[in-house]
Amino acid sequence: MGMPKKGNRKEEILEAGLEVFAELGYYNTTTALIAEKAGISQPYVFKFFKTKEELFEAALDRAYERIVQSFQKVHTDSAHLVDAMIEAYEELSTSHPNEIALQVIGLSVPEASIKEVTRRGLQRIRKDVLDQFKSAGIANANYEVSTFLARGILCNLSFFLDLPELMK
Amino acid sequence: MGMPKKGNRKEEILEAGLEVFAELGYYNTTTALIAEKAGISQPYVFKFFKTKEELFEAALDRAYERIVQSFQKVHTDSAHLVDAMIEAYEELSTSHPNEIALQVIGLSVPEASIKEVTRRGLQRIRKDVLDQFKSAGIANANYEVSTFLARGILCNLSFFLDLPELMK
DNA sequence: TATATTAGTGATCAATCAATAACTAATTTT
DNA sequence: AAAATTAGTTATTGATTGATCACTAATATA
Question: Which of A107, A142, A149 sits opposite B108 (nearest CB)?
């Protein structure tokens, strides 16, 4: 026994968790399913993540980290900033759809520490985007950021709920 | 035994469910907790709702029904329509906060038939508000409705996540 | 007053699942 | 090549919980 040690186990489990959580939600996802997708036994998951909750938090954190990075990479003049941001977001939703779905899933998980990860993620996005809007000299930056966030979230939802007419 | 029959049991259970679901989310809510809040035994719940899921759907449906009704009652000229709608929504979130919370909860429950209730609810809100915007002669009605919905949902979330700065 | 119906409960079960414990095999180190 | 460490597994369990079943008490009806 003892299959040859493959690449980074923790990373593989995180990625498998991300996929399954994004598809089935937090509560319908079992650690057995994650383990199966990662090609390991169920208990081995707990060698890398103390609890299922901790694993979910790590995955959700990655999803927020990625979107923050994407937005930070955008540099353009005030006339095209919003459009460029939207484009960055659209790229993300095709390159990493699971992470977008996970953010939606995370929005309404009532577990306190998961809520906290969502809170921090949204706060960070807001702050970063606001800074960019301001330094580009966009008027009413606060209001525009809220609208930008709001439309982004509605877009996620319309994707998650399979309800495209929400965003016409 | 057999306590005196109180008012409408089904209604009481629905209301109790609404409260507990709104507070704890779909999965963390047990039928025992709902029964306790309704002042009956746990199995009796199933005399009125075949499954926990069916009870949740009924509660969620009520929440969407109420918001649709609220918006339909708004009548004013195009210059004040959006503001009046926002006001109607704000009234609702103080008079029926549980129903607002339940809508957020419902957004990311992956169970197919619950998702369907959310879909229908959002579609109905969108259609109704769009009709009102159009007949008031608001320009870019489609776009304005999306923005209106988006900001409404963001507002729900900022309330649910206890993250007021999201809506500054 | 017998009978049927309605309202409700206690006991229990079958399934699910996160997490632990105890173990084995492979690899690395000395 | 022994010892120690790392990688991984199998077996199991303890708790939870939706749902069913069999029953009792109250009320209405004839």
Answer: A107
Token duo for residue A116: 């906290």
Chain A CB contacts of B147 below 8 Å: 147, 150-151
- Residue B45 covered by a domain: no
Range of the domain at A135: 53-167
Measured between alpha carbons, how far is A140 from A67 in angstroms, rounded to an integer?
A: 23
For residue B1, the model assigns a pLDDT of 32
Q: CA A168, CA A158: separation in Å to the nearest integer?
A: 10
Distance A100 CA to C27 C1' (A): 40
Rg (CA), chain A: 18
Chain A CB contacts of B20 below 8 Å: none
Domain count, chain A: 1
Helix (H) or strand (E) holding A9: helix A9-28
Residue A2 Cβ under 7 A from any strand D atom: yes
Reported confidence tier of residue B3, pLDDT bands at 50, 70, 90 = very low
Q: Kindly state whether residue B110 falls inside one of the protein's structural domains.
A: yes
As separate numbers, helices (DSSP H) first and strands (DSSP E) second, chain B gives: 7, 0
Interface membership of A168 toward B (CB under 8 Å)? yes
Nearest nucleotide to B33 (CA to C1') is D17
> In the predicted model, what is the mean pLDDT of residues B93-106?
96
**Looking at strand D, which nucleotides approach a protein CB closer than 7 A?**
7-11, 16-22, 24-27
Question: pLDDT tens for residues A27-79?
Answer: 999 999 999 999 999 999 999 999 999 999 999 999 999 999 999 999 999 99
Give the H/E segment covering residue B90. helix B78-95
Look-up of token digits 């959580």: A21
Cα-Cα end-to-end distance for chain A: 56
Residue B86 inside a domain? The answer is: yes
